[in-house]
Every structure is written in structure tokens, then in C-alpha cells.
Design goal:
4-stranded antiparallel β-sheet, ABC_transporter-like_ATP-bd, alpha/beta, binds adenosine-5'-diphosphate, disordered N terminus, ATP binding, binds magnesium ion, globular
Length: 259
């Protein structure tokens, strides 16, 4: 049933619209414009890597997707449905279809890995603890942490904590998962284990938007690389073209620094 009252994100929209579509999006913080007239879309199942210098608006761009920030102008459509006017239940509904993985993990320190992963299923979806725990166990297995279900965040390494955070983001079966520099807070020896989980996810068909400085991830796993600077998308290309022949001078300068 397609009607204006249909849930935003779980009902297939007509004509297989993109998973995410920005139309002329602006974002201001006070007088300061941090996103300027951005048109951008992500296809279903696509893996997009976003890179660019610090302060270029990457975090703001992905926080706008799940309404952690609201647009100042323009519109963001998720699966073809406008989102800027959503409030209350409709907004919560949208968010359950979008997973978010933060740089600093943002796990609940007083909850075990198992409870971190199952919390939203119990609190938001009304699942019984037993059913939620069963699903959380499966997800912890999937990220290689089947033996750590009863550990608390402080008892886990950074890489393990981030894998718990990924399992948590998957708990509600999102169709889209957003990552904001998921490996930037990790010691170098832990980056690989998190990238490996992300690589497996990428192959599972879920749509992913990943802000990252890991150029190996962008190059080997992403379908498309987006380069931002000054709140503007300056260049978008397939990884091979972007890394071998970046067009914009600022993208070339950025790559000279990070590669
Ligand atoms: P990036 O993730 O690329 O480093 P951000 O999206 O975090 O960039 O920030 C883009 C710009 O917006 C920066 O100038 C930053 O200082 C500003 N900014 C981000 N969040 C806020 C906020 N909540 N209030 C005011 N300014 C912000
Ligand atoms: Mg950021």
C-alpha cells in the first residue's frame, strides 16, 4: 500500500528510488553555512566513502541523513520519501531503518556487550529480553565476538568495542548504515579487524555511507568516493578514477597528503 501515511523507510518506494537523495541541501549553524546546496544520492546496496579535510562538513552530511541534525534548506529523501517534516513516531521509525556507527563507539558503559546490542530491540521494538538476547548473540557472532557477550565496554579493546557498536547498529535490520570515521579512534593494530567486519557488511548488500580516512577501504571496498571541502561536494567518482586521476586540484592536494 502506497499512501502518504506509509512508513518512511520500510515500504519499497515506487520506481526503486535511491536509498538516500539530497536535493539542494543547506545546513547552517547560526550564521555559519557548513553544507551548501548539496545534491547527492546513494543507490540501494551502494557503498559510498566520503573523504575530505577536517571541518569540510562530512560528519554534518551524514548526521543530516538520520536527522541527528535537521536541514536548513532543501530536502533529504530516504527510499524516495521526504524526511524534513517528520517528527515523533515517524522520525523514530525512520531511525530504526538507519544504523549509525560513531568514531567514539558510544556504547553504554554500564551495559554488557549483549545488552548494548539488544537494548533497542527491547526498549523501542518491545521484544522480550530472551528474543532480543538471541538475536544479539547471533550479531555478536557475526562480528567475531561470540565469546564476549557478557563483557562490559571497559573490558573490551577499542576494536572490540567498535565491533559491538556495529552489531548494535545492525540489531534493527537497517537497510542503511552510516559510519563516521569508525576507525579513527583506534590503535593501528585494531583497524584491520573493524575494516574486515565492514568489508563483510559491504558484501552483504546493505547500503553504506562511510566517512573515512582509510583510503584502503575507500579504494578497495567502496563503489564510489565522494570528496568534500568547504561544505561542498567537489568530486565524486569510482575509486579507480578518483585515486588515479583526481580532477579537482583540492582533491589532488588532499590525496598527496593522505596517501
Ligand atoms: P568534518 O566531519 O568534515 O570534520 P563537520 O561536519 O564536523 O566536519 O563540521 C563542519 C563545520 O561545521 C565545522 O566548521 C564545524 O566547526 C561546524 N560544526 C559542526 N557541528 C557544529 C555544531 N553543532 N555547532 C556549530 N558548528 C558546528
Ligand atoms: Mg567529522
Amino acid at each position: 500500500m502506497q499512501s502518504s501515511a506509509a512508513p518512511v523507510a520500510d515500504t519499497p518506494a515506487p520506481h526503486a528510488s535511491p536509498a538516500v537523495e539530497f536535493r539542494q541541501v543547506d545546513k547552517f549553524f547560526g550564521p555559519h553555512q557548513v553544507i551548501s546546496q548539496v545534491d547527492f544520492s546513494v543507490g540501494r546496496g551502494e557503498v559510498v566513502a566520503i573523504c575530505g579535510p577536517s571541518g569540510s562538513g562530512k560528519s554534518t552530511l551524514i548526521r543530516l541523513i538520520n536527522q541527528l541534525e535537521s536541514v536548513s534548506g532543501g530536502e533529504i529523501l530516504i527510499n524516495g520519501r521526504p524526511t524534513s517534516a517528520l517528527t515523533g513516531r515517524a522520525l523514530r521509525e525512520l531511525r530504526t531503518h538507519i544504523g549509525f556507527v560513531f568514531q567514539q563507539f558510544n556504547l553504554y558503559a554500564h551495559l554488557s556487550a549483549l545488552d548494548n546490542v539488544s537494548l533497542a530491540l527491547v526498549k523501542v521494538h518491545g521484544w522480550t529480553r530472551a528474543k532480543a538476547h538471541a538475536k544479539a548473540h547471533t550479531l555478536l557472532e557475526r562480528v567475531g565476538l561470540g565469546g564476549k557477550a557478557s563483557s562490559f565496554p571497559a573490558q573490551l579493546s577499542g576494536g572490540q568495542q567498535q565491533r559491538v557498536a556495529i552489531a548494535r547498529a545492525l540489531a534493527t535490520d537497517p537497510s542503511l548504515i552510516l559510519f563516521d570515521e569508525p576507525t579513527s579512534a583506534l590503535d593501528p593494530e585494531m583497524i584491520g579487524e573493524v575494516l574486515q567486519v565492514m568489508q563483510e557488511l559491504a558484501h552483504s548488500g546493505i547500503t553504506m555511507v562511510v566517512v573515512t580516512h582509510e583510503m584502503s577501504f575507500a579504494r578497495e571496498i567502496a563503489d564510489r568516493v565522494v570528496f568534500m571541502d568547504g561544505g561542498i561536494i567537489l568530486e565524486q567518482a569510482d575509486p579507480e578514477s578518483f585515486f588515479t586521476a583526481p580532477v579537482h586540484p583540492r582533491a589532488r592536494r588532499f590525496l598527496q597528503k593522505v596517501l
